[in-house]
Design brief:
This protein is α+β, with helices and mostly antiparallel strands. The chain folds into two domains: 114 residues, 2,3-Dihydroxybiphenyl 1,2-Dioxygenase, domain 1; 144 residues, 2,3-Dihydroxybiphenyl 1,2-Dioxygenase, domain 1 (Roll). Helices cover 19% and strands 41% of the residues. The protein is built from five helices and 20 strands. The strands form three sheets. The protein has a ten-stranded mixed beta sheet, covered by helices on one side. An eight-stranded mixed beta sheet has the order 2-3-4-1-5-8-7-6. A two-stranded antiparallel sheet has the order 12-18. The longest helix has 15 residues. It is globular and about 50 Å long. The termini are far apart. 44% of the residues are buried.
């Protein structure tokens, strides 16, 4: 099996009280605090999302988990060979509750933290809504990044970091989005290039029940958060999900039944003509 890469955690700038209402009351994450930082649990890990004070809302860092110290060293070597900066940071590793961590910045400007050895808590995860998140080796979920140069981004995330292309979807005439996996989860990173847009478009988290998704959708539909896209089923990774606008400005996708790539050697690359099989209509807070 090829090296495993997954979305380990995400750091955000935003208002902690607003994020607590959003992530806890709507989606069922468990809040914990580390000083001024709100951390949100979704499983046995110490945390999966961190909301930090900042001058403007947005993404602070994307945590990519690698499976071993050897794998971390290999990725760091490829980053240096590509002429890019990467720094191992022991103090930051301690703050993030991981054994080893290296920080770098992708050519599109995304702050990346590569890490291994995340902390597992003795206290069980307790969801206030009864949600059971699907994580494990497949990781927290995925992020969609809007990049200024799609070809350069594909080169970096595949040749340097080591992700592999799952498939592509036509998002506009003459423009495709690419979906990259690191083993198991259909995609960990998705990339698209849209004129005038740059940065984190959305994060996806998965739960084990359509009932859990449906109840969260009803809360959003009733006004708990602005609707970006209505409930619908994607075409390439046929997850059923919806999107709401987060307090940090990007969208938050919540869904069920995401694809798992069990055997990379037999996986066939495909290009899809549509994002959705059904639903997924742009809501009042949608922009794409």
């Amino acid at each position: 099996m090829k090296d495993l890469l997954s979305l380990g955690y995400l750091g955000l700038y935003g208002d902690a009280d607003e994020w607590r209402r959003f992530a806890v009351d709507i989606y069922g994450m468990q809040p914990v605090y580390d000083g001024e930082v709100l951390r949100l649990r979704a499983d046995e890990r110490a945390w999966r999302l961190a909301v930090e004070p900042g001058t403007s809302p947005g993404v602070a860092y994307v945590g990519i988990e690698v499976e071993s110290s050897q794998h971390l060293g290999d990725v760091m070597a490829r980053i240096k060979k590509a002429g890019l900066d990467v720094t191992e940071d022991k103090h930051l590793a301690l703050a993030r509750n991981v054994v080893r961590l290296a920080r770098t910045t992708a050519p599109d400007g995304t702050p990346i933290e590569l890490f291994t050895g995340a902390m597992v808590m003795s206290d069980p995860f307790l969801s206030p809504t009864g949600a059971k998140f699907v994580t494990g080796k497949a990781g927290l979920g995925h992020v969609l990044l809007l990049v200024p140069d799609l070809a350069a981004a594909l080169e970096y995330y595949t040749k340097v970091l080591g992700f592999r292309i799952s498939d592509a979807v036509r998002v506009a005439e003459g423009s495709d989005a690419y979906f990259l996996h690191g083993g198991l989860r259909h995609h960990v990173i998705a990339l698209a290039s849209i004129p005038g847009a740059n940065g984190l478009d959305h994060i996806f988290t998965e739960v084990d029940s359509i009932t859990t998704v449906g109840r969260a959708w009803e809360r959003v539909e009733a006004g708990a958060a602005p609707v970006v896209r209505t409930l619908g089923q994607h075409a390439n990774d046929p997850v059923t999900s919806f999107y709401a606008r987060s307090p940090s400005g990007f969208a938050f996708e919540y869904g069920v039944n995401a694809t798992v790539i069990d055997d990379e050697d037999t996986w066939i690359f495909k290009r899809y003509d549509s994002i959705y099989l059904w639903g997924g209509h742009i809501g009042p807070a949608g922009h794409l």
